[in-house]
Amino acid sequence: MAANPKPAVPPSQSYQTITADRLTPTIGAVISGIDLSKPLSEQQIADLNAAIADHQVIFFRNQSLDPPSLKRVGQYFGELQIHALQGLPDHPEVRKLQADANSKHVAGEEWHTDMSCATIPPMGSILYLHTLPTMGGDTVFASMYAAYEALSDRMKAYLEGLTATHDGKLAFGRFNPDGKFPVAVHPVIRTHPVTGRKVLFVNKGFTARINEVPDAESAAILQFLFHHCENAYFQVRFRWEPHSVAFWDNRCTQHLAIWDYYPQLRSGFRVQIADKGGPKESA
């Protein structure tokens, strides 16, 4: 049976300098009319902030970026947050993402919210890919507004006030088995600081357990929630082209990088934008 979430808050679409073409009724839009390689005006930045609030993830085609220019774009929206895994030597805020014939794992190959193991997870991430396989390599994004709104009223009431532990080793231990990674506790239901909408804030990549219930109950509830978050009705699937960009609001989305192109090459760079606050319980 199809999910039946409450009607989404309609996007403002009151942009002066850009155009946003929606990809689904729930999440995602392609932005045109802007060149990210050039300095952005205050109005362009305001329009992009409005678009990310409206659509949760926004995409750009035919952009020519490198690590310094990607950093500049990210800094328009906040301070850059250094990732738990190593960045570039000359640009530690920039992480190279590359998969090829030598890769045993790739970043993001299961559903996750970036660095939810941090005390204050990033507000968002910007990914630029310059090299793509001949086919495959899509990224799927899911709306956690829609995931929350599709829960029954009884489940919403049950989850209110609960917290969950997010452990970085779950996601990053395979890359560095001896590494020490962040662990943080966040509310299971949070309120988005910009839109005021409620969000389901657990993910398969990082969430280890719900803290206020027995282990068996925690495991069962998390299994249900992880499966629930993967509902196709909450999703948009982005087909990358060379020199495309994705900018997602990490506070209200999850994503999955589909590694279906081995042994071909997929390569680019990513920055994370720090959040000024942190996950707050819903009010």
Automatic annotation (TrEMBL):
One of its GO terms (biological process) is sulfur compound metabolic process. The keyword Metal-binding applies. Pfam families: TauD. Residues 22-270 form the TauD/TfdA-like domain. SUPFAM superfamilies: Clavaminate synthase-like (SSF51197). Keywords: Dioxygenase, Iron, Metal-binding, Oxidoreductase. The keyword Metal-binding applies. Coiled coil: none annotated. GO terms for molecular function: metal ion binding; taurine dioxygenase activity. GO terms for cellular component: cytoplasm. PANTHER family: ALPHA-KETOGLUTARATE-DEPENDENT SULFONATE DIOXYGENASE. Belongs to the TfdA dioxygenase family. This is Taurine dioxygenase. It comes from Steroidobacter agaridevorans.
